[in-house]
Specification:
The protein is built from two helices and 13 strands; from the N terminus they run αββββββββββαβββ. By secondary structure, it is mainly beta. The termini are far apart. The N terminus and C terminus are likely disordered.
């Protein structure tokens, strides 16, 4: 049966609206300096090639976060950007399971939908690391204290893509937000804003081996338990 052109137009508008709404549940905007060129990393089941670069994203404190950025072949012209380029990236925070040593590890990266050259002031880097996530708690929150007595809650948030895949994003809450987040139940609907941060840690491998690794997570600035008042500390 042929669909009338007017109906096709309505369907197209509905699909565009739905896709736009779904894209809005995972948003990243950051600015930084490329530490590497884009290098091939893998192909998906549809034979689409993906390339990855490391981005140095500064904080206002002067500390830098090292953020992996991935582009798909044909979506972003990666040939324009090279090691040393300062760029602004707009996209989503994605996760991917990867087998290493017989175990599955969660790999996190920013999937770039747009990249452009950044000609702003270098000191503005720390103002351009922003993340918004709208998802669901998929693991019991872990409430703890640092050796200095600061309260922290670790969350794992599932954010759905429009293709049915979910991204699993580790998030960390601090202070009063951490105390409130500790009471969240698995399945709770949350919205949050924050920034992507990286940190190094030592992982024991075997009986005597120690390996330096990098963890990536969202440092939460504001948390909204859906249907309840905002939590911000």
């Amino acid at each position: 049966m042929q669909i009338p052109s007017s109906a096709e137009g309505r369907i197209k508008r509905m699909e565009d609206y739905r896709n736009n709404q779904e894209d809005q549940n995972n948003q990243v905007m950051l600015t930084g300096k490329m530490l590497t060129d884009f290098r091939y990393v893998y192909k998906d089941v549809h034979e689409n090639a993906f390339y990855r670069a490391e981005l140095d994203v500064g904080r206002l404190s002067g500390i830098s976060d090292l953020v992996p950025v991935v582009v798909s072949e044909g979506q972003v012209n990666r040939e324009q950007y090279h090691k040393g380029s300062t760029v602004r990236v707009k996209g989503q925070y994605h996760s991917r399971n990867r087998k290493e040593g017989g175990k599955s590890r969660l790999k996190l990266s920013v999937f770039a939908q747009e990249i452009e050259a950044w000609d702003g002031a270098e000191e503005d880097y720390g103002k351009n690391n922003n993340v918004f996530l709208d998802g669901y708690i998929c693991k019991e929150p872990v409430y703890r204290k640092t050796p200095l007595g600061r309260t922290i809650t670790d969350l794992l948030v599932a954010v759905n893509r429009q293709n049915g895949i979910s991204d699993y994003i580790p998030c960390i809450c601090w202070g009063g937000t951490a105390r409130d987040a500790a009471s969240l139940e698995v399945g709770a609907h949350v919205q949050m804003t924050g920034r992507i941060q990286s940190r190094e840690y030592l992982k024991r491998t075997g009986e005597s081996g120690i390996q330096k690794r990098t963890a990536y997570e969202v440092s939460v600035k504001k948390l909204d338990m859906h249907g309840e008042s905002d939590i911000q500390r």
